[in-house]
Each structure stands twice: as C-alpha cells, then as structure tokens.
C-alpha cells in the first residue's frame, strides 16, 4: 500500500517550485516549529520592552494634579527596582491592607530614625509579624539604598522638581510640599484598591494596633489632642498615623483633601483637614471619620499613660532631629524596661514615660527658621 501523503494546494506547489531547486517540500512539522519560534521571539521582545517601561508605567497611577508628578528612580540597579503595584501586592495582608511609611536621607542614616522605627516592631507586642506588611517609600536615592539594606519591601518615589533629601523644617515651603506629596501618593494607593495604615517613621509601634481600630470607619486618624469621643470633630487630628479603607468615599475624600491645598494656601495637611472636616462637601462625600484615642495612640503632645494599653507613641510636638532622636531613644529604653518586669509588676505598677525631655510644644514656636539655614529640622 502506498503511504498516505497530504495533498497541497496548487498555489503552494507553485511557490515551492519557484523557491526550491529540488521541489521537495519541507516537512510540515518543521514549518510549524519555525512559525512557533518566530512568534516566541516576537513575544519575548515585547516582554522585554514591557519590563523596561514598567517604572514609567507607575506614573499613570499617580497624581491627576500637574503639581505632583511621581515616578520611580532610575539610578538603582534594575534588579532592585520594582513597580509600586508589585511591591504593594507582595506586602499586602489577606484583606489588601498594607502599612506605609516614608523615608528621606535625613532619617535614613545609620542609628537614626529608621533604625528605631524598625526596632520598635521587633520588640513590640505582636508587632514583629507586621514587618512583613510594611512598605518603606523612599523619597530620595540614598534613602532607597538604605531601605534595601534593612528591609524587604522598598519603593523609590520622587516628586518632580522637589528635593526631599534634607530634613524638612515644620511649616517651611519644603515641609508643605512633602506633606502634600504624601497625601497625593496615599490617594493613589487607595485608587489601586489597597487599604493602608500610614505611619510616620518617628512613631514607635509597641503593640499591634489593629484590635483597637474601628470596624465601621472609612478613615481613622490619631490625634495631637483627644477630647474624649472618637466621633467628635473637635479632636485635633495628626496626619502622621491613620488607617484608611479603600472605597469610593475615601478616594473622593483624599482627592478633595488634596485639592483643598489651593483653597487654603500656606497650610499643611493637618490644618486643612481641621478645616474641611466641617465642610458640607465632606458630609456629601459621606466619608466616616473616627479619631483614635491617645490612651492607645499617644505622642509627645499627649502621651499614652498606661504601658499595658499603649499601641503607638509618636515623636510629635518636637523640633529638630537631634531632639527627636534623644527622646525617642529614651522612649525605647522605657519600653524595654517595662518588658523586663515580671508579669504581676507590669499589671500593678504605673510606670511613667521619661519623655518628652528635649521635645516640647514650645520648641515648635521656632518653625519660622529660614529654610536656607536648615541643617536639621522636623517632620512633625
């Protein structure tokens, strides 16, 4: 019996006869392999172009306002640089919550703020595991490189035309740009679908705060002064610590908050929040705001009194990096001393904090020091 051969169309035969001297057709399997390899090469080329453009693609997730344009740094090795979506996905909890902090060169130096911040997670009650969900957003290249040395989840972010490397004096133009860039970045995180706990790096995490959060709030924020009720709009919020759930209400509120900087020029985000929390526009957005009790979320402005209850302590109401570091180190030592006590003494003794010492409300009266003279300053 003659072997079966597939009959080719006449046009194919004519093509072969023109391009081949021996008129023998290549096996069909070889042609298929060649076509496969061709499409594979095209696919890999497109993939490489996609990867190279990933850092630029991050830009489209950020500010709709032309004054705050974000992009990723190009200077670190490409193997170390990841897009914000990848970093957030890797760090997120099961419910899509991430913990975020920002870092600049001034706070990234060895034995400075960032080291105390990370140490607090390691010595806190139920906080070490939360480091797996912490993303450090570096505002300059040196801060990014230091982050890669000490932590897993790092993202390099720059605001075009703004140098965030040096310490920002309270209420200077440099400080205001940093605060408003932060609000706009957090808005972009919400738009990507992530809940977040934002924390300044000068906040020590001594106890897992999640059990103290309210389940029915869109935005809950720490206070410089707590008046006694979590719903009272007379509370004095501090933007350095807040827990925000991603939904239409929170996204619209962050857009409104950021745009209100133009309505109230020269004010920082906390002052503007204190103004717009009473606005009809905020009511119309429908965002539910809760204020966190300083008994659990304290600071130098209003310290938590009971070390058996404290979750976080903020080095707020403090002017100057040296003063802040001095008092933060004392605070960490106070916590370690508390942890060393026998269980029965922890419950019965009321141990006071040894701070504030160098930090005080009076120190903030010097916030008008010219920025050109600033060598060390404050991120309140």
TrEMBL record:
* Keyword annotations of the record: Cell wall biogenesis/degradation, Glycosyltransferase, Golgi apparatus, Signal-anchor, Transferase, Transmembrane
Q: Does the keyword Cell wall biogenesis/degradation apply?
A: yes
What are the protein's GO molecular function terms? Answer: glycosyltransferase activity
| Domain of life according to the entry | Eukaryota
Supply the enzyme class, top level: transferase
**Recorded GO CC terms:** Golgi membrane
Protein name according to UniProt: Glycosyltransferase
């Amino acid at each position: 019996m003659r072997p079966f051969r597939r009959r080719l169309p006449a046009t194919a035969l004519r093509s072969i006869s023109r391009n081949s001297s021996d008129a023998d057709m290549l096996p069909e399997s070889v042609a298929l392999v060649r076509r496969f390899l061709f499409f594979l090469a095209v696919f890999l080329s497109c993939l490489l172009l996609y990867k190279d453009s990933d850092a630029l693609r991050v830009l489209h997730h950020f500010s709709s306002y032309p004054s705050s344009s974000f992009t990723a740094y190009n200077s670190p090795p490409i193997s170390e640089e990841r897009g914000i979506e990848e970093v957030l996905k890797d760090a997120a909890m099961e419910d899509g919550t991430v913990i975020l902090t920002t870092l600049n060169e001034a706070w990234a130096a060895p034995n400075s703020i960032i080291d105390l911040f990370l140490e607090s997670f390691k010595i806190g009650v139920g906080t070490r595991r939360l480091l797996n969900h912490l993303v450090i957003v570096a505002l300059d290249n040196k801060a990014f490189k230091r982050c890669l040395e000490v932590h897993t989840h790092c993202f390099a972010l720059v605001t075009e035309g703004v140098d965030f490397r040096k310490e920002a004096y309270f209420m200077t133009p440099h400080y205001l740009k940093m605060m408003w860039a932060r609000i706009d970045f957090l808005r972009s995180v919400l738009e990507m679908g992530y809940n977040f706990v934002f924390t300044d790096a000068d906040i020590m995490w001594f106890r897992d705060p999640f059990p103290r959060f309210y389940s029915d709030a869109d935005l809950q924020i720490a206070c410089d002064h707590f008046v006694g009720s979590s719903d009272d709009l007379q509370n004095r919020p501090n933007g350095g610590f807040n827990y925000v759930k991603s939904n239409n209400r929170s996204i619209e509120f962050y857009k409104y908050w950021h745009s209100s900087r133009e309505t109230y020029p020269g004010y920082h985000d906390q002052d503007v929040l204190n103004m717009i929390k009473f606005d009809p526009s905020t009511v119309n957005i429908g965002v539910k705001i809760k204020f966190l009790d300083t008994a659990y979320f304290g600071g130098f402005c209003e310290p938590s009194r009971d070390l058996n209850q404290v979750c976080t302590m903020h080095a707020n109401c403090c002017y100057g990096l040296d003063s802040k570091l001095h008092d933060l180190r004392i605070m960490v030592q106070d916590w370690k001393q508390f942890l060393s006590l026998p269980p029965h003494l922890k419950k019965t003794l009321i141990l006071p904090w040894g701070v504030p010492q160098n930090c005080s409300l009076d120190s903030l009266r010097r916030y008008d020091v010219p920025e050109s003279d600033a060598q060390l300053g404050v991120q309140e």
